[in-house]
Amino acid sequence: MSNTSPALGTPPAVARPLPATKAVSDAPPPVRTGHCQCGRISYQVSGVPDDPHLCSCAHETRISGGPAVLWVGFPLDSLIWTGPGGEPKWYATHPTLRRGFCPDCGTHLASVADGSSMVMVTGFSLTDQSGIEPLGHSHRENAAPWMRITLAPGPIVLMSDPRVAAIPVTGGPSA
Ligand SMILES: [Zn+2]
Ligand SMILES: [Zn+2]
Asked: Domain CENP-V/GFA, which positions (predicted)?
């Protein structure tokens, strides 16, 4: 992301509005934990969540069984496998990319590209899911067409979509 500030040599660090991504830059917890469904594989990462995004590529929709996977990056050297199962089982969907999953319950937890200093973890495997709202959507063109009603961000689509307008605003406080 190129933050181009006009002309002046030293841009003021104050006036940099980050729309709807406040939590990303707002002092995230330094350490986060995550785990698979059965608990055999768990992990710890630390640092500022990097590039939280959805992906709807053919590999991930098939592997996950869902319309998209939420990914968020952390420094690879912060990654520690903490569960009784140690490391996940790895499966390469590309020659240069491997994905880690629990061999017992099948939960997908991580993705590491060769040469990358980041590990991408699945957002929903994290215990603390604050500050990882997706900022983009990779392979959006492959997403299920109906998914646009739930995509983020998309205020214009949301407000103009009659199907969304038909959804009750709230189910009440105790729903
Ligand atoms: Zn498991
Ligand atoms: Zn993908």
From this structure: 32-147
pLDDT in tens, 161-174: 555 555 554 444 44
- Give 49 Cα–ligand 2 centroid separation in angstroms: 18
Spacing, Cα 73 to ligand 1 middle (Å): 21
For residues 48 and 24, is the Cβ–Cβ distance under 8 A?
yes
Ligand closest in space to the Cα of 97: 2
Q: Which ligand minimizes its atom distance to the CA of 35?
A: 1
For domain 28-164, which CATH number applies: 3.40.190.10, 2.40.10.270, 3.30.450.70, 2.170.150.70? Answer: 2.170.150.70
Rounded Cα–Cα distance for residues 15 and 7 (Å): 15
Helices (H), the chain: 22-25, 58-64, 155-160, 162-165
Tokens at residue 28, please?
A: 């995230």
* pTM of the model as a whole: 0.69
Measured in angstroms, how far is the CA atom of residue 88 from the centroid of ligand 1?
A: 9
pLDDT digits (tens, 9 = 90+) for 56-92: 999 999 999 999 999 999 999 999 999 999 999 999 9
